[in-house]
Specification:
The protein is an all-alpha fold and 383 residues long. The protein contains 16 helices and no strands. The protein folds into 3 domains: 102 residues, Serine Threonine Protein Phosphatase 5, Tetratricopeptide repeat (Alpha Horseshoe); 108 residues, Serine Threonine Protein Phosphatase 5, Tetratricopeptide repeat (Alpha Horseshoe); 136 residues, no CATH class.
């Protein structure tokens, strides 16, 4: 009797045997289903990687993998890829349904995380039953349509009827960027950018981008005062450095006008003086003065242009062109100043005035040249 097994040991063995048999049987049933799910998923991937992609075959295989049992992660991946197909085809409502099913099928997998992110993106753009989003994505995903004036004009008209929301904002931004850049219609873009910047559904980043583009378009169109006013009134959406840059553009415009005024005054007064000298038959004095100055003036102008250009070219971002132009512009200014001095009033006050005006004209000419050729040099002077 001592060799007989204990009763509790017999009951444990008796209970364990059918449990193990049931587990083995279950694994045997699910293993073929899991293999079939993976095979269908692999077949779908091959169909999508073909050239051209075999989308109908891929969808059929993904539907089979998504409905099979035994491999929850594979089913979730199939559902996620079905959502991708739906999105590519513009069926965003169906894509959202597949994303919800993916998140429910295997919540802890990476496919569920991706599906949830895409579902959030779609829900934020679900106004109008996804119809506006389908219109927008049709143009946005096609490089040909995004550069087609007819397609962009049609999207601009459609956006006017879109319900308020993110899709309307994004559609208008797409239209504005096309008109600003590749289609060359900045004035039409300005109107649309105002709509985006003033749309309460636009997020701060998009509204700020629209303001920057709007201000840049206004400045490029010559409306610098309006651009500066726009920057001041929407400073909360803009970077402080950007606002200061627009203010510098406005200051630069006033300095440019003043510089042109100085040069015009110089040319006018010199012309009057030379005309009076001609009436007095005194232009011979001018000729003698210029012959005496030319041997010095020409080398000086050449030195000014060449030396400045060499120094500028030594820097990586340097540009020698404005210095060469300045040297060329200085020569006639100096010659005119000498001619004017030869026939002008000999009074000390008049001579001082001519000298000051000549100096101011050289600076004015330098500013105008830099502003036209290399305005980045003016930033170092706060302009």
């Amino acid at each position: 009797m001592d060799n007989a097994p204990h009763a509790w040991k017999l009951s444990a063995v008796t209970m364990r045997t059918p449990t193990l048999a049931l587990l083995v049987s279950s694994l045997g049933l699910f293993a073929p289903a899991a293999v079939e799910t993976r095979a269908a998923l692999d077949h779908a991937k091959e169909a999508l990687s073909a050239l051209p992609p075999e989308r109908d075959i891929a969808r059929a295989m993904l539907d089979r993998a998504a409905s099979a049992e035994g491999d929850g992660e594979a089913a979730a991946e199939a559902l996620y890829r079905l959502g991708e197909l739906d999105e590519d085809e513009g069926d965003f409502e169906r894509a959202a349904a597949h994303d919800r099913a993916c998140a429910a099928a295997a919540p802890e997998t990476r496919w569920a995380v991706r599906a949830t992110e895409r579902l959030d993106w779609l829900r934020a753009r679900s106004e109008g039953g996804y119809v506006p989003l389908a219109h927008l994505e049709r143009v946005r995903r096609s490089p040909a349509l995004a550069s087609d004036p007819v397609a962009i004009d049609a999207l601009a008209r459609e956006a006017q009827g879109f319900p308020p929301g993110i899709v309307r904002v994004e559609a208008r931004m797409l239209v504005a960027e096309a008109w600003l850049g590749r289609l060359g219609r900045p004035r039409d873009a300005i109107v649309v950018l105002r709509d985006v910047a003033g749309d309460p559904r636009a997020d701060p980043l998009t509204a700020g981008l629209a303001e920057r583009e709007l201000i840049g378009a206004l400045a490029s169109d010559g409306a610098v005062e309006e651009a500066a006013a726009e920057a001041r009134s929407h400073a909360s959406l803009l970077d402080t450095r950007f606002v200061r840059g627009v203010e510098r553009l406005l200051l630069r415009r006033w300095v440019r006008r003043a510089a042109i005024g100085v040069m015009a005054t110089y040319a006018g007064l010199a012309a009057i003086a030379l005309q009076r000298a001609r009436r007095r038959h005194a232009l011979g004095e001018t000729a003698r003065a210029l012959r005496g100055l030319a041997p010095l003036a020409v080398p000086f102008a050449a030195f000014l242009g060449i030396a400045g250009g060499v120094l500028a070219s030594r820097y990586e971002s340097g540009n020698a062109k404005p210095f060469l132009l300045l040297g060329a512009a200085t020569l006639p200014l100096v010659l005119v100043a000498r001619a004017w001095s030869a026939v002008g009033s000999p009074w000390p006050a008049a001579r001082v005035g001519r000298a000051l005006l000549c100096s101011a004209t050289v600076f004015a000419a330098a500013f105008v040249l830099l502003d036209a050729v290399s305005p980045e040099y003016l930033e170092g002077f706060g302009l």
